[in-house]
Amino acid sequence: MGRPKVNEKELKKAINLYKSEQYSVSEIVEMTGISRATIEQSPPSSLFTSMHIMLCDISCIKLLSNILNSLL
Q1: Which three-class secondary structure string do you get for the chain?
Q2: How many percent of the chain have pLDDT more than 70?
Q3: Can you give the pTM of this predicted structure?
């Protein structure tokens, strides 16, 4: 069964809204239905999107973010 899949279109929208710094996380959650944890743990750069990496859960996001940060 596992976790429900995140709507990629809504996730991208949530990340863009978050980056704009015009909305609170609570407002973004209401607008997109994406959880607070997913929004706050999403990578800060679009590098992951451009590489088409499918991130499946929060622990995976944290791990990849830590690896990327250590490489930069």
Answers
A1: CCCCCCCHHHHHHHHHHHHHCCCCHHHHHHHHCCCHHHHHHCCCCCHHHHCCCCCCCHHHHHHHHHHHHHHC
A2: 74
A3: 0.55
